[in-house]
Amino acid sequence: MSNNQDQVAIVAGGAQNLGEHLSYRLAKEGYKVVVADLNFDNASQVAETIMQDYDTDALAVEVDVANEEKVTAMVEQVRERFDRIDVLVFNAGVAKSTKITSFELADWQSMVNVNLTGYFLCAREVAKVMVEQGSGNIIQINSKSGKVGSKHNAGYSSSKFGGVGLTQSLALDLAEHGVRVNSIMPGNLLKSPMFQSLIPSYAKKLGIAEDEVEKVYEEKVPMKRGCSYEDVANAVVFYASDQAAYMTGQSINVTGGQVMH
Question: pTM of the full predicted structure?
Fold first, then answer.
């Protein structure tokens, strides 16, 4: 733990669900954690919990990742408070599922804005600090839908495929500065509110009852279970560590064998 005691990690989209879990896990690993989220009340609660329950500092910041001014202000606030940024975990994301013939442009744009443009803006602003430091780690929480197309998920999958190209490009831009950039591709987080919100549309897509959807998705996985928050957190901690010092530009599957390329 002591290796990370002076290190600062931003979790964008860090105030609930997977992001909240990642915030606590990074705190447990000794990082000072910046909980950045559109929901400032939740972010504040998570930051308070970190300061109470873990022996480390935390800061809550309100941010809309798709808003350039807000992202710039967030990074400036973190810099003023901690004077450095060692890790960015970009976890902000939105998903809406529908067949292409009834896919609304507004839904498409919201997914591209948050999932892809938001990643671009956060990575760009954080990279400026990391380049000055000569070190840093940028980790995007992507999806297996960034590796293989997903039925009724044109907007989400496209935004996630774009994220892979952005990760590789950032890795090439930043390698000479000692900054590594990687994506993590989780399988279905079956218990997450995002997946749960999609169950009605998935039931319709598959022609089955809503209470059968989770089982169908488990059966698609060689390991016969969904992806857990801790599965993702383990990968994040590894990629942020020196154990992954020779790895950059990668899109790493955490899918129980469901996606292997």
Answer: 0.96
Is there a catalytic annotation at residue 156?
A: yes
Inside any domain, residue 207: no
For 30-89, how does the pLDDT look when each residue is reduced to its tens digit (9 = 90+)?
999 999 999 999 999 999 999 999 999 999 999 999 999 999 999 999 999 999 999 999
Which H or E element spans position 174?
A: helix 154-174
Domain with 36 in it? 2-189+228-254
Residue 199 in any domain: the answer is no
In the set 24, 54, 156, 239, the catalytic residue is 156
Predicted local confidence at residue 2, as pLDDT: 47
Q: Which amino acid does the sequence have at 81?
A: R
Q: Which residues contact 171 (CB under 8 A, 6 or more apart)?
A: 180, 181, 182, 248, 249
The CATH code of the domain that includes 36 is: 3.40.50.720
